Amino acid sequence: MANVSEILRTIFGFDDFRPGQQEIVDTVIGGKNVLAIMPTGGGKSLCYQLPALARTGVVLVVSPLIALMRDQVRALQAVGVVAGALTSANTNEETQYVYDMLENGSLKLLYLAPERLGSSATYALLKRYNISMIAVDEAHCVSQWGHDFRPDYLKIGELRRTLDVPLSAFTATADAETRQEIVDRLFDGIAPVTFLRGFDRPNIHLAFEIKNNPRQQILAFAGARKGQSGIVYCATRAKTEGLAKALTEAGHNACFYHGGMDPEARRVVETRFAKEDGLIVVATVAFGMGVDKPDIRWVAHADLPKSIEAYYQEIGRAGRDGAPAETLTLYGAEDIRLRRTQIDEGLAPADRRLADHGRLNALLGLAEALTCRRQTLLRYFGEEIESCGKCDLCDAPAEIFDGTQNVRMALSAILRTDESFGAGHLIDILIGKATDKVRARGHETLPTFGVGRALNTQQWNGVFRQMMGHDLIRPDRERHGALRMTESALPILRDEATIQLRLDTIKSDHKTPKIKTLVSEDDAPLLSALKAKRRALAEAADVPAYIVFNDKTLIEMAEKRPQTLDDMAHISGVGAKKLETYGAAFLSVITGSVEHIHPARRKIAGRSEANLYDQLLEAQADLSRGYDGTEKPLSCSAALLAKVAQMRPRDHNTLVRILGERRAERFGQAFLNVLAQAS
């Protein structure tokens, strides 16, 4: 067996192992099954690449991304290691090289995507050659309920049994539950030698901010780091495109990336990001797993991630070279509602949804942390550290106050209204605002009416957001987003426990304008219905949802609730073509009925001609049987009325040319009067 230190020095160019690496390498070389959980950037790949050179035979590496495999193969070949990958992106020459090296026995590492494991030809190939070990990168992908689940990872356990070789699994993100899934699915429930090498990335600065015009917050964050490579994660595909455009217009080198793009376009972005300095990629979570760029200096989240594991993995793409890196995560009440809804409406069984709520709660606890964020983050993964000095709460400690009384007031308002209303209505009750909705339900007579006048609306919004963060209340999808109390709130309500809240985030919420892109609790059910209609129309047309209407347009519809097509035409993002194509469908969602309107009238909806058309129609109705009401009925077609409204003739002769003698004689003067008054 080759000398490990010699391989490390001569092939990889390192004098020493990173902390924790050598013990893993020695165990892998020894032929034992291994599960290694190491921090992102901790040198996982070396832990199977070096053993491949120290052992006889071929090490099979199962990796989830073609781009990552190709990068690793190129890097290995550059240092003289005979390695290859069999992927759909191979050239004929690359594939032939792999087969030639297998035949002559010189290939040391063979990379495969998990999808190829379903092929009988792949099994025949692997049985033919001397596969000595299997290495699984990103092993958390085997977790069926994880955010990076890859179904084909479930075939790896069978492959291990078929080849009867040791297996080493590597990941940077695996809580206790996911670790058990890995053991069950890859090792048949027999625990391998497990290494938990810590989760701390001390070079990464952690920061969270309440959303307040998130686009400007991201632009400001990127602007202070201009020229540095960064990733911005967004919750939707449409937002990646819009934010990338805004960054480009602000002078940054930026592009977007999401799962809806053409594969070739995605490959172009991956290649650019790998090669270009200072490029910003604005992406959904489709981008990142396997990203091995060492000099990513910052990662920002424009929306709250799905879980604390997702957050940890995504920020871990920064600073892999060990140099200082920064992160910023934006969040607000709308993010919390979105993530809760995604969990509740998912396909997971009830116990898994409960676990997912727990993972989200852990992230919300990090967002609303009262002290050092790194302590809070690492405590979730079972580690304890002193205050890090490298997070926003260490930089500027949070202002904290006893929020027990405020929380009790809010909980009381929720209970006294039968857990049937959203935050907006509850806050109106607490501050004593007797709106029509409050009066209609007699809520101005409740004991809680006006008890919270010491805080204003924005401050109460901050309290409710933190209550969601502490999982004291949750929106109930069965009641269109009405807030319901959780078991965790009972001790506070009963005066058996107290709670500390952050004053700084409440004050911050008060100082900043309301985020225009968010809707109130009262408007949320309508927004959901509009999104459902958009999704149905988009699927029918086989186009992305934002092609129909973007979220901003739907939010404005939900807030303004247009009642006619003329009203709809004044909604931002609703142009004439979209009004004609989609207006009636969305209007029916808002009003509950279909507005029957002639196509000629629909084409001018929302324009000044529409009002003229309606007045001309009214004038025509008055004269349909002449001035004395005894003549034979006569009318103009909708197309003729629309033409008059658009052309606005000023004299009788012009009207005759449009309407003809008979109609001009009956309606001419009345029409000219309408037109004159409109001028």
Protein model, in words:
The chain has 679 residues and is α/β, with parallel strands linked by helices. It has five domains: 193 residues, Rossmann fold, CATH 3.40.50; 155 residues, Rossmann fold (3-Layer(aba) Sandwich); 112 residues, Orthogonal Bundle (Arc Repressor Mutant, subunit A); 73 residues, Orthogonal Bundle (DNA polymerase, domain 1), CATH 1.10.150.80; 71 residues, DNA polymerase, domain 1, CATH 1.10.150. Helices cover 48% and strands 11% of the residues. The strands form four sheets. A seven-stranded parallel sheet has the order 3-4-2-5-6-1-7, with helices on both faces. Strands 8, 9, 10, 11, 12, 13 and 14 form a seven-stranded parallel sheet that branches. Strands 15-18 form a two-stranded antiparallel ribbon. Helix 23 packs across helix 25 and helix 29 crosses helix 30. It is globular. About 2% of the residues have low confidence.
What's the quaternary structure here? single chain
- CATH topology (level 3) name of the largest domain: Rossmann fold
What's the number of structural domains? 5
* Span between termini: 96 Å
Strand order of the largest sheet: 3-4-2-5-6-1-7
CATH class of the largest domain: Alpha Beta
Fourth-tier CATH superfamily name of the largest domain: P-loop containing nucleotide triphosphate hydrolases
